[in-house]
Design goal:
The protein is α/β, with parallel strands linked by helices. Helix content is 42%, strand content 16%. The chain has a seven-stranded mixed sheet, with helices on both faces. A three-stranded antiparallel sheet has the order 9-10-12, covered by helices on one side. Strands 1-11 form a two-stranded parallel sheet. It starts with a strand and ends with a helix. The relative contact order is 0.17. It binds pyridoxal-5'-phosphate.
């Protein structure tokens, strides 16, 4: 990459082996089900998260929307974390396009909804209320610095859902980060949900794409919802080929990104003027704050990192920042960030 970019893992470029796989991918018309590379990716993805079938989609947002439109009908209610990506950062798709009524609940420092509150949020069977239909969960939890939520939580959610005949969908945009951080097979987490979406385009470095996984019957219905939102693509094997490289080569190495994030967080925590909670740093991202006492404004901090070391950080509008590591960030880049930040803040 042409810069040291800590803004997000979405900025990561595909590696040379990925570009080569894309160039050489066998293709067909995927709307006819005839693209062998898409079919291969969908099968691999489903296997890795322990579901029967997969559906290649253009983005994580499309995967979540397709899942919600398939599980729910107009007037159905969904319980969702109030700071979850699906509720807060997907343009309100469930309500705008699906007529699905969100019931947002607060989450704790790790991104978990309180289970007693959740049970109370399930409506009585009464015409005043929407139908109880869905519970949406997220792992790792983006708004809580990518915290990997442990599997017990999802087991308990499953139990509540079953008691109330509800469906659970997981926005697992970074499920492999969560699984690697927890040292679990992803299936140990996803076994508790009916469907899961994950992104190929973040830490896994693919240029485009996510996969929605669930039962064979669910995915067959989801194909119609994907068509509805304009997401049925043709020779999409060119893109899916990158996703296959993601799943074969890029999952286990996420541990390196986690180590780099930890290294950066531990280093930043020691610089006067920077405030963060190192214990919450478990995957490839974390939040930190610039103290009021810092000698520069947040905007100046961002500008000087860029000018002095080609280090890109998002934000600068408030004292809160997020730093994210990925394949294109190495230990030397972390060291340069720390050295530059120290110089700016001294
Ligand atoms: C990135 C992300 C998504 C999907 O984002 P797209 O940009 O649409 O691929 C969904 N949920 C979470 C938690 C994410 O981080």
């Amino acid at each position: 990459m042409d810069r040291i970019d800590f803004r997000s893992d979405t900025v990561s470029w595909p590696m040379p082996s990925m570009r080569e796989a894309m160039a050489n991918a066998p293709v067909g018309d995927d709307v006819y089900g005839e693209d062998p590379t898409v079919n291969k990716l969908e099968a691999m993805a489903a296997e890795m998260v322990g579901k029967e079938a997969g559906l290649f989609v253009a983005s994580g947002t499309m995967g979540n929307l397709t899942a919600i439109l398939t599980h729910g009908r107009r007037g159905d209610g969904t319980i969702v974390g109030e700071d979850s990506h699906t509720f807060r950062a997907e343009a309100g798709g469930m309500a705008v396009l699906g007529g699905i009524v969100p019931n947002p609940l607060p989450t704790d420092v790790y991104g978990r909804m309180d289970l007693t509150t959740l049970e109370k949020a399930i409506y009585p069977d009464d015409p005043h209320y929407p139908n109880n239909r869905l519970i949406l969960v997220e792992n790792s939890y983006g708004a809580k610095g990518g915290y990997p939520i442990e599997r017990d939580y999802f087991q308990q959610i499953r139990h509540i859902a079953d008691k109330n005949s509800m469906i659970v969908h997981m926005d697992g945009a970074r499920i492999f980060n969560a699984a690697v951080a927890l040292n679990l097979d992803p299936r140990e987490i996803t076994q508790h949900v009916d469907s899961v979406t994950f992104c190929l385009s973040k830490g896994l470095c693919a240029p485009v794409g996510s996969v929605l996984c669930g039962s064979t019957e669910f995915i067959a219905q989801a194909r119609r919802a994907r068509k509805l939102v304009g997401g049925a693509m043709r020779q999409a094997g060119i893109l899916a080929a990158a996703g296959i490289v993601s799943l074969t080569e890029m999952v286990e190495r996420l541990a390196d990104d986690h180590a780099h994030a930890k290294m950066l967080a531990d280093g930043l925590a020691q610089i006067p003027g920077i405030v963060l909670e190192p214990d919450l740093v478990k995957t490839n991202m974390f939040f930190f704050e610039l103290a009021e006492s810092a000698p520069v404004t947040p905007a100046e901090f961002v500008q000087r990192l860029r000018d002095e070391a080609n280090i890109w950080l998002s934000g600068g509008y408030s004292r809160r920042f997020r730093a994210v590591t990925h394949y294109w960030i190495q230990e030397a880049d972390v060291a340069l960030f720390l050295q530059t930040a120290r110089a700016i803040l001294q």
